[in-house]
Amino acid sequence: MSSRRQLANVESQLTIQYRESRKNEITKSELEALPNSTETYLSVGKMFSSKPKDSIIADLEKQTKLTKATYESLTKKKKFLEKELKDASDSLKDFIHHSTRLQG
Fold first, then answer.
1. Which of 4, 37, 70, 98 is deepest in the core (most CB within 10 A)?
2. Would the pTM count as exceeding 0.85?
Protein backbone atom coordinates (compact mmCIF):
# COMPACT_ATOMS: atom_id res chain seq x y z
CA MET A 1 0.00 0.00 0.00
CA SER A 2 1.40 3.40 -0.90
CA SER A 3 2.28 5.92 1.80
CA ARG A 4 -0.36 8.33 0.55
CA ARG A 5 -3.04 5.68 0.73
CA GLN A 6 -1.90 4.65 4.21
CA LEU A 7 -1.91 8.29 5.30
CA ALA A 8 -5.47 8.76 4.01
CA ASN A 9 -6.51 5.58 5.82
CA VAL A 10 -4.93 6.76 9.09
CA GLU A 11 -6.60 10.17 8.78
CA SER A 12 -9.95 8.46 8.26
CA GLN A 13 -9.38 6.29 11.35
CA LEU A 14 -8.40 9.38 13.36
CA THR A 15 -11.69 11.04 12.44
CA ILE A 16 -13.63 7.95 13.50
CA GLN A 17 -11.76 7.67 16.81
CA TYR A 18 -12.29 11.37 17.55
CA ARG A 19 -16.03 11.08 16.90
CA GLU A 20 -16.32 7.97 19.06
CA SER A 21 -14.42 9.60 21.93
CA ARG A 22 -16.54 12.74 21.70
CA LYS A 23 -19.77 10.69 21.63
CA ASN A 24 -18.69 8.78 24.75
CA GLU A 25 -17.81 12.00 26.59
CA ILE A 26 -21.17 13.61 25.75
CA THR A 27 -23.12 10.49 26.73
CA LYS A 28 -21.19 10.26 30.01
CA SER A 29 -21.85 13.90 30.89
CA GLU A 30 -25.56 13.47 30.13
CA LEU A 31 -25.75 10.35 32.30
CA GLU A 32 -23.96 12.05 35.18
CA ALA A 33 -26.56 14.83 35.12
CA LEU A 34 -29.35 12.29 35.75
CA PRO A 35 -30.45 11.48 39.30
CA ASN A 36 -29.15 8.17 40.69
CA SER A 37 -32.71 6.80 40.90
CA THR A 38 -33.10 6.98 37.10
CA GLU A 39 -33.44 3.64 35.36
CA THR A 40 -30.91 3.36 32.55
CA TYR A 41 -30.82 1.00 29.62
CA LEU A 42 -28.07 -0.11 27.28
CA SER A 43 -28.66 -0.97 23.64
CA VAL A 44 -27.72 -4.58 22.89
CA GLY A 45 -28.33 -5.26 19.23
CA LYS A 46 -32.05 -4.67 18.64
CA MET A 47 -33.02 -4.83 22.31
CA PHE A 48 -32.38 -2.79 25.43
CA SER A 49 -31.00 -4.18 28.64
CA SER A 50 -31.41 -2.55 32.05
CA LYS A 51 -28.04 -1.66 33.53
CA PRO A 52 -27.06 0.47 36.53
CA LYS A 53 -26.06 4.05 35.72
CA ASP A 54 -22.68 3.69 37.46
CA SER A 55 -21.87 0.61 35.39
CA ILE A 56 -22.68 2.38 32.13
CA ILE A 57 -20.55 5.37 33.14
CA ALA A 58 -17.64 3.07 34.03
CA ASP A 59 -17.95 1.34 30.64
CA LEU A 60 -17.97 4.71 28.87
CA GLU A 61 -14.84 5.79 30.76
CA LYS A 62 -13.06 2.58 29.71
CA GLN A 63 -14.13 3.03 26.10
CA THR A 64 -13.00 6.67 26.15
CA LYS A 65 -9.56 5.73 27.51
CA LEU A 66 -9.18 3.02 24.87
CA THR A 67 -10.31 5.38 22.11
CA LYS A 68 -7.90 8.09 23.24
CA ALA A 69 -5.01 5.61 23.36
CA THR A 70 -5.86 4.46 19.84
CA TYR A 71 -6.09 8.09 18.72
CA GLU A 72 -2.62 8.84 20.14
CA SER A 73 -1.18 5.76 18.43
CA LEU A 74 -2.73 6.76 15.11
CA THR A 75 -1.39 10.31 15.51
CA LYS A 76 2.14 8.93 15.89
CA LYS A 77 1.62 6.72 12.85
CA LYS A 78 0.35 9.73 10.87
CA LYS A 79 3.43 11.77 11.78
CA PHE A 80 5.68 8.88 10.73
CA LEU A 81 3.89 8.47 7.40
CA GLU A 82 4.01 12.22 6.73
CA LYS A 83 7.76 12.22 7.40
CA GLU A 84 8.25 9.14 5.22
CA LEU A 85 6.27 10.76 2.39
CA LYS A 86 8.22 14.02 2.71
CA ASP A 87 11.55 12.17 2.70
CA ALA A 88 10.57 10.22 -0.41
CA SER A 89 9.46 13.41 -2.12
CA ASP A 90 12.70 15.21 -1.20
CA SER A 91 14.78 12.29 -2.45
CA LEU A 92 12.95 12.31 -5.75
CA LYS A 93 13.43 16.08 -6.12
CA ASP A 94 17.16 15.72 -5.38
CA PHE A 95 17.47 12.90 -7.90
CA ILE A 96 15.72 14.93 -10.60
CA HIS A 97 17.79 18.01 -9.77
CA HIS A 98 21.10 16.12 -9.96
CA SER A 99 20.16 14.25 -13.13
CA THR A 100 19.24 17.50 -14.92
CA ARG A 101 22.56 19.08 -13.82
CA LEU A 102 24.45 16.11 -15.25
CA GLN A 103 22.62 16.34 -18.58
CA GLY A 104 22.95 20.14 -18.87
1. 70
2. no
